Amino acid sequence: MLKKGEIAPDFPVGDRSLYQILDGSAVVVFFFPKAFTPGCTKEAGGFRREYETLRKSGCEVVGVSSDSQQTNDRFQASLGLPYPLVGDPEGAISRAYKVRWPIIGVNQRVTYVVSRARKVRVAFHSELDMDAHVTRACETMASGAS
């Protein structure tokens, strides 16, 4: 896992990049293991529920899984998510963020809050408490500077 203060690596997010998004706002980058599973559905739904709160606090949201982009697009549409999901089947993004389980090849459940200066403000890991990820992100953004 990246540590607080480390520079978050750039990666493509649709037709933009993380760094392009960071030019305008902080970003919550949450890594999840597998689309369409109960835990990941709950976590993604939590970020959907709090999306406007996060935006009003100066933050965008991006989800990343080891699924294909097509699977993430279907998952995003099925949940009506207002934020992008990024497919990372080769694991390049998850390795750069140090969240890939080495043997099973899927992401750990990790959430980062990245400041506009591209630095990690918060790195949070919990495999079982899906609600804690969005709670931690909202608390971080409510606490001040992005």
Describe this structure as you would to a colleague.
This protein has helices at 18-22, 38-49, 51-56, 69-79, 92-96, 130-142, and strands at residues 12-13, 16-17, 26-32, 59-65, 85-87, 110-114, 120-125. With 146 residues, it is of the alpha/beta class. The protein has one domain (12-142): Glutaredoxin (3-Layer(aba) Sandwich), CATH 3.40.30.10. The strands form two sheets. A five-stranded mixed beta sheet has the order 5-4-3-6-7. A two-stranded antiparallel sheet has the order 1-2. The protein starts with 11 loop residues before the first strand and ends with a helix.
Could you outline the blueprint of secondary structure elements for this entry?
Elements: E1 12-13, E2 16-17, H1 18-22, E3 26-32, H2 38-49, H3 51-56, E4 59-65, H4 69-79, E5 85-87, H5 92-96, E6 110-114, E7 120-125, H6 130-142
Parallel strand pairs: 3-4, 4-5
Antiparallel strand pairs: 1-2, 3-6, 6-7
Helix pairs in contact: 2-6
Largest sheet, described in full?
5 strands, mixed
Beta fraction? 15-25%
* Helix content, binned percent: 25-40%
- Measured distance between first and last alpha carbons: 21 Å
Query: For the largest beta sheet, what order do the strands appear in spatially?
Result: 5-4-3-6-7
- Based on helices, strands and strand pairing, what is the structural class? alpha/beta
Average pLDDT, all residues: 93
CATH homology-level superfamily: Glutaredoxin
Q: Gyration radius, to the nearest Å? A: 13 Å
